[in-house]
Amino acid sequence: METTGNYGGQEILGAARVEGPIVVVEGMRGVGYDEVVEIIDARGRARRGRVLEVGEEAAVVEVFAGTTGLSIDDTHVRFQGHPMQIPVSPEMLGRTFDGLGIPIDGGPMPLAERWADVNGQPINPTARIYPRDIIQTGISALDGMNALVMGQKLPIFSGSGLPHNQLAAQIVRQASIPSTGKEQQQFAVVFAAMGIKHDVADFFRESFAGSGALLHVTMFLNLADDPPIERLITPRAALTLAEYLAFEKNLHVLVVLTDMTNYCEALRQISNIRGEVPSRKGYPGYLYSDLASIYERTGRIKGSAGSITQLPILTMPNDDITHPVPDLTGYITEGQTVLSRELFQQDVYPPIAVLPSLSRLMKDGIGEGRTRADHAHLSAQLYAAYAHVQDVRSLASVIGEEELTPVDQDYLKFGRAFEQSFIGQGLSENRSIEDTLNLGWRMLALLPREELTRVTEAEIDRYYRESAV
Predict the structure, then answer these.
(1) 311 with 442, same domain?
(2) pLDDT for 343
(3) Which of 82, 105, 133 is the last residue of a domain?
(4) What's the CATH code of the domain at 108?
(5) Residues 388-423 pLDDT 10s
């Protein structure tokens, strides 16, 4: 092997090993982890990669476009001396890029205000601002019971065939800040696709265009027929732009990442090729920390009026919420929105399973001066009543509905109305938080007053009788 140049520009002729998307190089000096690499084949065609592992004698390089056509003797490997960077500027809004940040919409490379490391910069925890401003999504099951807060990371746990894409697109279209509605136009959207089909990408593009939001959307697309290895860079490139827009241009940014399961599959593929000891279901032992390096690039910081709110979407294999991907995601993020196949089969949209869903920051974004004073108590009462509905349904399946007490039959009526009218709403129905709370009281009016133990007497006197049906 031959080596030329110094650190930051050294080039090596020949590789020690080529396997799948991995190239092992020997004889280099001063190479760093995550360093960008340019690989040139015998025909002079270049492709990019990055350093995955460094030792004293060898470096493991991941090639984004794969290693087809590379030979061990005639491959030139050029180390660039810096981590992967992408250009960032406001003019990237309204544009479409591939998973590595290269334009695929026919336009030129954006004029960069600066080049930013896709791995991001660590944020001092003491510089973070605690998220407290609620985002009105217009969806009752979220705004009423699992509210999304600006700066929160709230994943959507879904399954194959469920309408998670429609839900994410509706949230993006309808998101606003209740206290200052004029700020709705400040929301920018960064959409990152990992291994999705062309029709899904087209759906999001048409949805953004139909809502007039396309000029405020940047799309990073790694489709199903693109190299899987690109998927490891795609969410990081998207979040790099989001950080620039939020913390330097003071925009409120919604980041949609779909599908994180495809990302984790690509990570498992690379781990297996490298011969690493597998953990649960073959995923690498560092899956938790790798996901955290993506999810934690969210929030608000002092000195900036902007924010980053993440909506990662993941499809649970076999609808298994204990699968490593949703399991670890739930630990890292501040809750989850779980979609129900049972509700979906009953034609309820959005089929949000209220009981396993959770928003850990909701308590800090609701209440007097933010939404309404009765919001927390109303949410708790609806949750408790719907949980009791499940017990009543189990009992009815054994003894029959006609044998239930009158109160239990009221709970069954409440459960049906709650699923069809409160959880269920149209694809284009945008409910204000006030509408959602009033609808919640109309649902509680189906139950006897003495069953309402989670709300105060003053709240019952004010809202229960007015909402009675």
Answers:
(1) no
(2) 95
(3) 82
(4) 3.40.50.12240
(5) 999 999 999 999 988 999 999 999 999 999 999 999
